[in-house]
Amino acid sequence: MRIVVLLKPVPDTTGQERLGPDLRVDRAAVPAVINPNDEYALEAALRLMEARGGDAAITLLTMGPPAAPETMRKGLAMGAHRGLLVTDPALGGACSLSTARVLAAALGSLEFDLVLAGVDTSDGRGGVVAAAIASLCGLPYLSYAGQVELTDTAVRVRRLSPRGYDLLEAPLPAMVVVTQTVGEPRYPSLKGIMAARSKEIVTRSLADLGLAADGVGGAAATTRVLESRPPASRAATRVVRGPAPEAAEAVVAFLAERRVI
Ligand SMILES: Cc1cc2nc3c(=O)[nH]c(=O)nc-3n(C[C@H](O)[C@H](O)[C@H](O)COP(=O)(O)OP(=O)(O)OC[C@H]3O[C@@H](n4cnc5c(N)ncnc54)[C@H](O)[C@@H]3O)c2cc1C
Question: Which of 53, 86, 160, 193 has the most C-beta neighbours closer than 10 Å?
Fold first, then answer.
């Protein structure tokens, strides 16, 4: 079974993510980590491999800056077998559609049965790249999977729904987007960290994938950020404390003063 996990390096979510003067995420400002939702996708892949007695090969697929292998190695330390990185100076500022086109082309260079992805990223937060890849590759798409089961020819997912839960099935190859209910991502063991050092990460440029930079790069972005600023600071917030009757009176007086009531 050949499983591909989409893994995006994102600014460390404990740090203050910021945009550079070019209004793109300033990736040098904060160390990169694995996109939290993609850690769950990798955990789901590792559990599927274990459920098959180890009979699965897991490849991490990333579009990112040249420094991305440092983050991908954390995924290899968790237990993935190898990595494929697509990196190209032309990709800076790429939009979701371009990101999907590049990752779809990279998938076309791989043999796979199942692709796993996170719901969205902590920096772009678009939540569309996985669906766009599935549509570009003509793959069945199963979203919001809380549980994933595999046979040799099909994937079955359980998804929370207003009715309780739905059970869906699709033939392989397929794309599955998992939620954080698939199980807590494991911490890499020391053995895993050591082994990750020698695991292969193959790097591809746009030309290697037969893609024209002016077709998928930042220059071809379908969207651009015009402005990004913090919310306007509001007038000081007044907190009413104390026994309920007095507090209620204070609130009523506050509202009456402002002719709200
Ligand atoms: C402030 C800001 C706003 C933006 N708004 C828009 C916008 O409205 N429209 C738009 O088209 N672009 C927008 N962009 C650009 C967009 O963030 C990037 O194109 C980004 O790569 C798109 O994906 P995402 O992070 O939203 O991914 P999502 O669609 O949230 O990702 C879903 C899943 O796809 C996989 N995935 C996504 N990116 C990668 C990757 N690089 N490598 C491997 N797997 C990946 C992951 O598994 C991820 O969990 C914005 C960028 C910024 C900084």
Answer: 86
